[in-house]
Amino acid sequence: MVVQFEKKSMTGNDAAAYAALYAKPKVIAAYPITPQTTIIEKLSQYVDEGKLDAEFIIVESEHSALAACMGAAWSGVRTFTATSSQGLLYMAENVFWSGYGRLPIVMPVVNRCLAPGWSIYQDLQDSMAFRDAGWIQVYTKNNQEVFDSILQGFRIAEDKRIAMPYMPCLDGFVISHTTAQVNLPNAEDSFNFVGEYKDPVIEVDTENPWIFGGLVGPEKFNKDRKDLMEAMERAKKKIVDMNREFGEYFGRTYGNGLVEVYGDDVADLTIVSMGTIADETQDAVDLLKEEGLSVNELRIRTFRPFPEKDIVEFAKQNNKFLVIDRSVSFGHDGQLRIEIEAVLKRNNVDTSVEGRIMGLGGEDVPYTKIAATAKKVLKE
Amino acid sequence: MKVTQKDLLNIPRKAILKGHFACAGCGSALAFRHAIGSIADNVILVVPASCASVYQGGGKGASFNVPTINTAFAASDAVASGIQRAMKMKGKEDIKVVIWGGDGSGADIGIATEIGACDRQENILHVMYSNNVYGNTGGQRSGDTMIGAKTATTPQGNTTPRKMVPFIMMANNARYVATATVAYMEDLVTKFQKAISLEGFKFMQIDSPCPPNWRSDSADSIKIARLAVQTGIWPLFEWNRDTGKAVISRPNQKYVDKENRLPLTDWSSLQGRTKSMTKEQLQNLESDTERQWSFLKKFL
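^ Those are the sequences you sent over. The predicted structure of the assembly is below.
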């Protein structure tokens, strides 16, 4: 069954708010930060107007925003928040606490660079700093994918075998504040896909007291961490399944859910990137094709868990990668490049890897610039 | 409802079981036993990093017999807010959500979160048991440390006045604020019961002797706590938003008048942290005590 849509023009933040509205979270806690603000403004409006039956907690900090969602998640109800940049950093200890605590929270991060200097524009430095926090991270390319990823996110996070918080990332302004067409399903169809949060992963109960997060010895500690590692592996399959199921229901998929290929399966050069740069890369691929050059694209949609197998399989057919990072691990390199090189090496694939760091601090990365860079790399 | 000694002996369900890790003479564990024990069937406990996150024990030997969620140091009031709102959505509003933490979180690192929850009038109770130090980390100075008290980070004695957290909560329009002490347990549990019966944000501060950090004899805990009331160091009162008035609690009424108070040295001489205070430090402690009283008297 493919459901009916209404074609609507909306910003990426509106798309995020619609997805949250349709998933019917019971508790939302949020604190404003540009460029996330319009998501929570919309949701507070839905709650005030009675369109959404939820408790909206207007907290005094991001640290408390996530903490309140954690309280709600421990109580076994669906919960949602959103943040950006410094706000994500301010909630840091709770980001790790909820990740290692396996709490199924959905929290879009509207990517914005980190100070200093003050800039509200986009790069991926904020969310990339949390790649080790035990969250699923999906980097979206456009407004439609924001909506779709959030609906899928609740299903993935709340699956008992996964039980993990989910962070859909959307580039600030380029997605968050730019109006584009979104094929919006109606509320009922959307909720039918997500479903009620039944049989919660975890639920604090006065009948059966248990202690959460108390003292543990190394044995139990390691068991818990090992379980998180294994759950991340299970999450890969879940993300693929969810992408397929979503496709059957809504008629749209994003590659296999983990990675998405654009252009020919085999090419002289593969551009690898994430977020809106990956969307722009599609135009670069088309432009280069018109010029008679053989270039394709591998978009990493899911950064955590990292799609090692998919990258390796693709690299076996393609000899040269150009990885574009929009964030840096200072003292080393762009995180995406580091990780791609690592998985190729460990799987004995000899695809060569070039890396470029582009688009920091909201620097515009048009397809022409990507194409020019690709040409240079092709000549090397 | 006034709690009697007989009520104290009839704890319906033990909230803390044998084998807990609290030190001998710990005021916090004693207050926990009676206060949380009085509502053990109907409470969700939120514990920030504190002695309580340790003395609850761990794994199968854990001693807390009530549902307990441990949180990051500054997160407890926000986590409790999320739990309470979720319970509301589930139609289980009758479940009491109580934060049980020390003065490190309550007076220092978590105070913004605490005021945030107070400001939103979350229907929760924050109990701050005060041992006036970061006890769990080895006894460093907190915002709740008394003037002159030696701690691991004020080896010559603390020089700054106490942060008056109950008054901060009153100023932020809490529903109910009370101070209590383990020396007068009936009074403590009566206030605790009153607090949980009211809708909104409630705050209680409990004087909780800490033998290892106060360097006192564990057998003297109750005696020291009682002397804190009798010397005026620890004003016992409750304040209700309805009236905007503070009421001095019965065990403390006699000591409102400074003339009736015992000398401060009766209290300070029983503790290693305070017994060698200089004359000047004693004077400073006395004037800081007066500062608390003069503030409190404005609400009588």
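The mean pLDDT of chain B is 96. The interface with chain A takes residues 41-44, 46, 53-54, 56-59, 62, 64-72, 74-75, 77-90, 95, 112-113, 115-116, 119-120 of chain B (CB under 8 Å).

Shout if you want it in another format.
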